[in-house]
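Progress report, Aim 2. The chain analyzed during this reporting quarter is listed below.
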Amino acid sequence: MQTKIYRIKGKFVMGSEIQVFTKEYKAFKEEDIYEKIYSVFGSKHGIKKNQIKIESIEEISADEVEDPIVKAIL
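Predicted C-alpha cells for the chain:
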C-alpha cells in the first residue's frame, strides 16, 4: 500500500480567536488524516476535537507540496 500526500485546510478556536491553518501530511487513506489533525492540534495546542473545523482535504502530487518537512521526506 502506497502513502498519499494530503493538503488539509481548516480553522480552530484558540482562546477567543479563530485561527486558520493549512497542513500537509502523508497517509495511507483520507480517514487517517482526521485522527492525525486531532492528535497534533490536541497535543500541540491543547484543544479538543469540537474546536477544530476541517474544511477541505485534497490529495496532492509530490510536485505541489509546499511544506519543507514533507518535501524532505519525499
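The chain has a mean pLDDT of 90. The radius of gyration is 13 Å. These observations will guide the mutagenesis work planned for the next reporting period.
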